[in-house]
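This follows on from our talk about sequence and fold. Can you supply me with one protein entry, sequence and fold together? Could you add the entry underneath, on a fresh line?
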Amino acid sequence: MNNFQKGSEWRRWDLHLHTPNTKLSNDYGHDATVWDRYIENLKSSPVEAFGITDYFSADGYYALLEKYRAKYPDTTKVFFPNIEFRVAEAISAKDTNPHIHVIFDNDEKNCSRDDISRFLVALKTHGESASGVRLSCDQLKAETDFMSASVSLEDIKNALKETFGEAKPYLLAFPAKNDGVRSTDSKSPRKVLITDKIDRWCHLFFGPSDSRDYFLKTDRYQEGKSEPKPVISGSDAHSFPDLERLEGNVAGFEPTWIKADLTFRGLKQICFEPDARVFIGSEPVVETRK
């Protein structure tokens, strides 16, 4: 699925959409045709790389991978596992819990299914069992478990370190707005410090085009220099009507173009060249596709 001959060129990416297996807010329905319909929507869309997202789990990604490959074994579409976590630390004035994403390398040699499973075992949530023991992500089963669970930023960091050591087959993504960095309660010094920590730690941000210039600035922090970082837009699809956003013409859900190979290594290049390799809008200024 990763054989590309043209090298780096502008392609459509959507790294935030959910499947009919998503643990929360699943509005796709449950009829016998739901997966076939979902796969056909992805196949017919102009998006070439997808971040298949689930809460505290990669189940949706592996379910899609199996079903899609069975139906279209020669596809050139590419899929990355994206695990979405509710963060315990609040930074907005409303004290709501933001969500952080861990997007993993889709190359089994660098990040296997067992690796991701071990990470989810290592990552303890703030939800507790009846005996008072903290549940790990892999122990969440009921919908209420997923609705109530949260994780701390330090626990995510430690679980990644425990699982992968010095290797980093993942990218961390945080919202730009909507309880994200740009929604920080500026009147709270503690929340500003937490936000700066999140900004330093994360590799990229989910947001609209009007957040792009902010994250390219080098003076975002209260103290110290900030590194320019990429902003990408995603559909956050939870239903078939939401999948219409993949076409790139739904207001509020701008399409994202990335100039890179359709590989995790290609995706990582946007962290080194956030200005030159990402475009959010109808079409890149210089279109190189043929």
